[in-house]
Amino acid sequence: MIDALVLAGSPNNGPLRSCSTASYEALITIRGKLMVEYVVEALKECDRINRIAIVGPREKLAGYFQGDGRVVLVDHGKDLTENVLLGLKKLPGARQVLLVTSDIPLITGRAIEDFINQCAREKADLYYPIVPREVIEKRYSSSKRTYVTLKDGVYTGGNIFMINPEIVEECMPRGQKLVAARKSPLKLCRLVGFMFLIKFLMNSVSLQEAQKKVSRLLGIKGRVVISMYPEVGVDVDKPSDLQLVHEQLDLA
């Protein structure tokens, strides 16, 4: 059995503010349910998931999850690293933890099960899903995602991760540096190396090369998992995403 940690502490102070007055993105209501409720329901559909820790505004979430024996609520901290560490403290003894963002209300138990099964094929410290562009666009033609072109194909990143709790404290700050540098070519050059960056910009980096480079930068063994479930790569961070979710749930 695998424990899950849901990140639900992002304040609603970005583009989604025009769609909802909820103080946190996880608390945005979609068809009568909180966005985070859809994620938790999908986790519960997966037979491999045991405990579920939700890190966010605990008092606001209590009315929805209190009394649920599988769910533990944790007050969020000031940043991503602290939130992950706070959540892991409530999941003692876990050898692997599924880290899930609260902004993927289209996620399903089958998609989660498939990701977990693929992770089991090779031992690693961190598993990260990517979804081919054609898979996203076949199901959600109106979805606007950020894609990366590699030698092997065009992909978008997913929003669920499998992590080894023992490496988090050391690895997370390095990961945040990499994310923070993504829009600065100079900073990226310093982190990943000039030649790698040039190859990346010329679309000549393979998936295997990218996986090895990120593993080396983070000081861990990482593995990329290709998911054929488009809902893994569709998060809600702008009004058009929220509209897409409403349309898809209306069709369900």
Structure description:
It is built from ten helices and eleven strands. With 252 residues, the chain is of the alpha/beta class. Strand 8 and strand 9 form a beta hairpin. Helix 3 runs antiparallel to helix 6. It starts with a strand and ends with a helix. The model has no long low-confidence stretch (mean pLDDT 88).
Summarize the structure.
This protein is of the alpha/beta class and 252 residues long. 40% of the residues lie in helices and 21% in strands.
What features would you highlight for this structure?
252 residues, alpha/beta, Spore Coat Polysaccharide Biosynthesis Protein SpsA, Chain A, nine-stranded mixed beta sheet, two-stranded antiparallel sheet, 11 strands, 40% helix, globular
**Can you tell me the CATH topology?**
Spore Coat Polysaccharide Biosynthesis Protein SpsA, Chain A
At the first level of CATH, what is the class?
Alpha Beta
| Largest sheet composition | 9 strands, mixed
> What's the rounded overall pLDDT mean?
88
The number of domains is 1
The structure class reads: alpha/beta
Distance between the termini: 29 Å
Which radius of gyration do the C-alpha atoms yield? Answer: 18 Å
Uncertain spans, ≥5 residues at pLDDT below 50? none
Portion in strands: 15-25%
* Rough outline: globular
What percent of residues adopt helix (DSSP H or I)?
40-55%
Please tally the helical runs, counting DSSP H or I stretches of 4 or more residues: 10
* Secondary-structure arrangement, i.e. CATH architecture: Alpha-Beta Complex
The counted number of beta strands is: 11
What does the secondary structure layout of this molecule look like, with pairings?
Blueprint: E1 2-7, E2 29-30, E3 33-34, H1 35-45, E4 49-56, H2 58-65, E5 71-75, H3 80-89, E6 97-101, H4 109-119, E7 126-132, H5 133-139, E8 148-150, E9 153-157, E10 160-163, H6 168-180, H7 185-192, H8 194-201, H9 207-218, E11 222-226, H10 239-251
Parallel strand pairs: 1-4, 1-6, 4-5, 7-11
Antiparallel strand pairs: 2-3, 6-10, 7-9, 7-10, 8-9
Helix pairs in contact: 3-6, 7-8
